[in-house]
Amino acid sequence: MGKEGGNLHIELNAHGQVIGLEGTRLSSKLGVLARNGILAPLNHKDWRLVPSMYKDRLWSHIKENTDTTDDMKRILMMSFGSKWKESKHEVKTIGYDPYNIDIERLAHCPDRVEEDQWRSLVHYWSSKEAKVGARLLFLHLLY
Q1: Rounded mean pLDDT of 88-97?
Q2: pLDDT tens digit string along 34-91?
Q3: What is the pLDDT of residue 10?
Q4: Cross-referenced PANTHER family, in alphabetical order (predicted)?
Q5: Which of 31, 44, 95, 128 is deepest in the core (most CB within 10 A)?
Q6: Alpha-carbon gap, residue 88 to 113, rounded angstroms
Q7: Which own/partner contact pairs does 86-89 have at CB distance under 8 Å and 24+ positions apart?
Q8: What is the distance between the alpha carbons of residues 115 and 107, in angstroms, rounded to a whole number?
Q9: Average pLDDT, whole number, for the chain?
Q10: Beta partners for residue 12, in sequence order
């Protein structure tokens, strides 16, 4: 994650946003980490429900490769959570949405997704719970 021979320098503005060129590099690196199914498994309903052991491991990885401080943890982990959610949406868009039945969906596991996680995701996205949740979200966005 860090540049050759050093760590990414992380600086926040008054609003808690990462700034500067290194901020852009950090955002890119967080996106790469978010697509790593071993470090950040996608088969959880929501980032807030991902077990703390994964989050602790990610935070350790971020700290090892940046000059971040513990007071930046909340901001950076929220940013990571957004990247994780984007990654999950991407795999749904490419491996789930184009197909009509689960057997086809299961056969089209995206390369970057672990097989067991993919089975879990397909099962969830095909469930009544997920479909009702999606409808409620859609209706909420309409009004």
Answers
A1: 95
A2: 999 999 999 998 999 999 999 999 999 999 989 988 989 998 999 999 999 999 999 9
A3: 87
A4: LEUCINE-RICH REPEAT RESISTANCE PROTEIN, OS10G0409366 PROTEIN-RELATED
A5: 95
A6: 10
A7: 86/31, 86/34, 87/31, 87/34, 87/35, 87/40, 87/42, 88/42, 88/121
A8: 10
A9: 87
A10: 18
Q: Are 8 and 66 in contact (CB under 8 A)?
A: yes
DSSP 8-state assignment for residue 101? S
User: What's the confidence (pLDDT) of residue 21?
Assistant: 79
Mean local confidence (pLDDT), 108-122: 95
Which residue type occupies 106? Answer: L
Token pair recorded at residue 96: 């789930």
d(CA 90, CA 86): 6
- Alpha-carbon distance 135 to 86, whole Å? 19
User: Does pLDDT of 142 surpass 80?
Assistant: no
Chain centroid to Cα 97, Å, comes to 19
Query: Rounded distance, CA 83 to CA 63, Å?
Result: 18
Burial class (CB in 10 A: 0-12, 13-18, 19+), 101: exposed
Q: Left, alpha or beta for 5 (phi > 0: left; psi -120 to 50: alpha)?
A: left
